[in-house]
Amino acid sequence: MTQKTARFYKAMAAVLVGNLLYFWLMPFLPSEMHHRRFELDLGTVVDAWFCLCVYGVIELLLFFHRRRYPSS
Q: Which of 3, 55, 64, 69 is deepest in the core (most CB within 10 A)?
């Protein structure tokens, strides 16, 4: 797998899991943080933040995996 393909899969996984978490937790968030269709609002920013955090967790897990198993 090329490095470009690996980055694509990490980003796609981060977006899918981040959106899943956001929409699962959305009923518990304040109404200002709810995303409205076709609008750039605080909900969009919070959703992007979820995706960014998931991407960071994926990178952190891969970092520790590479550190523990350097040959793989």
A: 55
For residue 53, being part of any structural domain is answered with yes
In degrees, to the nearest 5, what angle opens at C-alpha 66 toward C-alphas 61 and 69? Answer: 120
CB crowding 30-54: b at 16 or more within 10 Å, else e:
eeebebeeeeeebbeebbeebbeeb
- Enclosing domain of residue 61: 8-28+47-72
**CB of 54 within 8 A of CB of 6?**
no
The terminus-to-terminus CA distance of the chain in angstroms comes to: 13
Q: Is the pLDDT of residue 21 over 90?
A: yes
Asked whether the predicted pLDDT for residue 35 surpasses 80, the reply is yes
